[in-house]
User: Which sequence fits this backbone?
């Protein structure tokens, strides 16, 4: 029995001949003709994503991660065309080589039969080169068209918050345009950027991409010239809009209506520039390591508590960026004392407030996972028999072989009783051995932090009540 995966990708919705449904139909037909089983769980699909790079192709990366598991989950990856796999020769060579040599998995184009002889290597390389050329040429044509539209002041991207787009032109959104005006006015009236972000989040509003607002999101809005009727565009096709000194960036008069008047805009820009100068003129010392670094968590959102300005206190990282509603500010000196007191209470009164999370080294062979994989094979051969890929005799033979493997693996499962008392004693001994060093001002903070991480998983700090819970692990 051969198991296959399918990888499907479309970069735009108007590619009807390469639609996800049509690609999958063709791949399923090929799999059935050639004796492959194609389970639904091994169908990987990226929609609306370019094949030039792999970073944002989540389904592709999940497929590669699955392919690396042992034993190999499938024997081949079926594609409509090699261009669906990658339009970048470097990526194509790296991933195909890794799959074939390290995983024993073939990459097969169902519409570009190239054979198995040595000439097929040249043919496949030529196909990949043509695909990459097509992709580069298409990108250049698209960029040229967008530059031309931008030079005429026309819309070239999705609209910013506060605008809608219709017939290729921006127009104010009656629901969110007033929000943009309020952001500008609140900032001029002295409201801080983080406070504005927190207020927007509390109101239920989200960014254009559905995310929470944070300080840099609000700053981006305040810097965006689209609100005074401009189009901002880079001749290279993309730019970092948080970098206000991008030499490639151009600002052109747009065809759309302004939301913010020029006087308000100029005042906001002067205030932002003044704050920027103040920030970089401030002589901040570099952050110093501290005992609880990376261990403390916000009880409201679960984010890490990080050093605040001045480095003498901790604050929820998400709150500092406007994404969490509850402040968890506390001095480092105070929370250090709270943690040491809690550790002393643990060993003095045998008082473990929270459950112990057990972390044990796993054997190289994860028996339960292997058994579950064999059970999946049973389901697949059943599918194969129902789809007439297997005869009844082949089905019975494969089923018995897999069942024997399950029985063999099951015999390896040995459940050992856990001695919770012994585990607690070991934990107490670790805490007792660490306390003198944790309390000593002569011991470096980095060493204290490393020592704590050998038995503390996390420390949750509750702002109301000023309390902590320590989660241990063994």
Assistant:
């Amino acid at each position: 029995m051969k198991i296959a995966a399918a990888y499907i990708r479309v970069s735009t919705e108007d590619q009807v001949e390469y639609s996800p449904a049509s690609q999958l139909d063709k791949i399923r037909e090929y799999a059935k003709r050639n004796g492959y089983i194609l389970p639904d769980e091994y169908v990987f699909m990226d929609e609306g994503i370019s094949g030039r790079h792999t970073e944002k192709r989540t389904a592709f990366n999940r497929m590669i991660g699955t392919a690396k598991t042992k034993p190999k989950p499938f024997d081949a990856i079926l594609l409509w065309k090699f261009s669906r796999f990658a339009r970048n020769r470097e990526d194509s060579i790296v991933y195909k080589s890794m799959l074939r040599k390290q995983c024993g998995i073939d990459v097969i184009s169902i519409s570009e039969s190239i054979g198995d002889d040595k000439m097929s290597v040249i043919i496949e390389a030529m196909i990949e080169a043509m695909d990459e050329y097509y992709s580069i040429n298409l990108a250049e044509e698209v960029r040229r068209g967008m530059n031309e539209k931008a030079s005429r002041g026309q819309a070239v991207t999705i609209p910013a918050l506060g605008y809608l787009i219709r017939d290729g032109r921006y127009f104010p959104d009656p629901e969110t345009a007033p929000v943009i005006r309020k952001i500008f006015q609140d900032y001029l009236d002295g409201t801080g950027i983080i406070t504005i972000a927190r207020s927007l989040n509390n109101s239920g509003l989200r960014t254009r991409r559905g995310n929470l607002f944070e300080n840099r999101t609000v700053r981006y809005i305040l810097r965006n010239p689209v609100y005074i009727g401009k189009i901002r565009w880079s001749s290279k096709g993309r730019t970092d809009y948080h970098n206000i000194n991008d030499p490639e960036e151009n600002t052109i008069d747009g065809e759309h209506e302004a939301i913010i008047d020029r006087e308000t805009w100029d005042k906001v820009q002067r205030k932002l520039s003044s704050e920027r100068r103040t920030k970089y003129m401030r002589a901040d010392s570099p952050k110093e390591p501290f005992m609880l670094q990376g261990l403390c968590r916000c009880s409201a959102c679960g984010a890490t508590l990080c050093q605040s300005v001045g480095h003498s206190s901790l604050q929820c990282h998400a709150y500092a960026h406007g994404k969490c509603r509850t402040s968890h500010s506390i001095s480092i000196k105070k929370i250090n004392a709270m943690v040491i007191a809690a550790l002393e209470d643990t060993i003095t009164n045998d008082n473990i407030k929270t459950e112990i999370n057990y972390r044990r080294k796993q054997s190289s062979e994860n028996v339960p996972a292997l058994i579950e994989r064999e059970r999946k094979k049973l389901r697949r051969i059943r599918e194969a028999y129902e789809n007439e890929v297997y005869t009844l005799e082949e089905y019975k033979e494969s089923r018995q072989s897999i069942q024997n493997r399950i029985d063999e693996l099951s015999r390896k499962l040995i459940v050992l009783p856990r001695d919770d008392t012994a585990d607690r004693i070991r934990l107490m001994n670790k805490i007792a051995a660490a306390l003198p060093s944790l309390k000593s001002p002569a011991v470096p903070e980095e060493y204290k932090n490393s020592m704590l991480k050998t038995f503390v998983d996390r420390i949750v700090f509750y702002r109301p009540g000023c309390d902590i819970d320590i989660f241990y692990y063994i």
In short: The radius of gyration is 30 Å.
